[in-house]
Write a structure and sequence with these properties.
alpha/beta, 2 domains, HTH lysR-type domain-containing protein, 279 residues, DNA-binding, D-Maltodextrin-Binding Protein, domain 2, two-stranded antiparallel ribbon, 11 strands, transcription regulation, LysR_subst-bd, transcription, Arc Repressor Mutant, subunit A, globular
Length: 279
């Protein structure tokens, strides 16, 4: 089976539409349509049922999709191993929480770039999403907040963080909690803390970026819970007042995790060396 056709099928299945797949694959929609038609002609079966609501896999398409996941994972693993064997430097696909990416990673990745010329990509998101992506082999490793399931992931200590409650000059902790979407470990810690003081019903306003959250805190639209290092790195940190969260909510550890059955590539090993040096 053509690897390009399988990747196209995966993109349509994940985005739910041919247009969405075209954006994800950085090509025109007619290319997506042509590739899916070729795949259907190869097997003599429809793989997608198209409607105004989008595209969904047919029963046969579900079978192709399940096999495609395995084949694409095997292809990526083989390509990675051969690049390593050839000394070309296999790519390292990293994931990170938004706050860690903004505050901790710039200096760390600069050091990694000095040690390795291998291609590097970075995906940000909440801990739950990142762990799912690592397990599904969409990324190789991720910086996430603990605890970590050691039956599925290897993990090394990367950073220790003190969580603080941050408010602006004209606000109090009585406003809404400004936080990332569900799956964010800092949001979970904040809500656990609020629950411990009888405020589990506190309104939550979801936002997409750390800069946006802290900017809205400064503007008096609510409060947030974040690592102290992230708040101190904010452009107007002097306008915010911070209070450490009490135990056991205030201390958290960021780990670099990867699948237990995955052997780190050279760039990954160099990243581990850098973390060990910092420790």
């Amino acid at each position: 089976m053509d690897i390009v056709l399988l990747k196209t099928l995966m993109a349509v299945a994940e985005t739910g539409s041919f247009s969405g797949a075209a954006q994800a694959l950085n090509c025109v929609q007619s290319n997506v349509t042509s590739r899916i038609r070729r795949l259907e002609e190869q097997f003599g079966q429809k793989v997608f049922q198209r409607s105004k609501a989008g595209a969904r896999l047919t029963e046969f398409g579900e079978q192709v999709h399940a096999r495609a996941i395995v084949l694409l994972q095997q292809f990526a693993a083989a390509e990675r191993d051969l690049l390593e064997a050839a000394g070309a430097g296999a790519p390292l696909r990293l994931g990170s929480m938004e706050t860690t990416a903004a505050v901790r990673l710039p200096a760390l990745l600069k050091r990694l770039r000095d040690k390795s010329a291998a291609p590097l990509s970075l995906t940000t998101g909440p801990t739950a999403d990142l762990l799912s992506k690592v397990w599904d082999q969409k990324i190789d490793a991720a910086f996430v907040a603990g605890p970590v399931d050691k039956a599925r992931f290897q993990a090394v200590h990367a950073f220790s963080e003190q969580l603080v409650c941050a408010i602006g000059p004209a606000t109090s902790e009585q406003g809404p909690l400004l936080a990332f979407r569900h799956g964010c470990s800092y949001r979970a810690a904040a809500q656990a803390w609020l629950g411990s003081i009888g405020q589990s019903d506190r309104e939550v306003t979801e936002m997409g970026t750390l800069e946006g959250i802290l900017g809205c805190v400064e503007a008096g639209l609510g409060f947030t819970v974040a690592p102290e290092s992230a708040v101190l790195g904010f452009r107007n940190a002097d306008q915010l007042t911070t209070t450490p969260l009490p135990p056991p909510f205030g201390e958290t550890v960021t780990y670099l995790v990867w699948r237990v059955d995955r052997k780190p590539v050279d760039a990954h090993r160099k990243l581990l060396e850098i973390l060990a040096e910092r420790a």
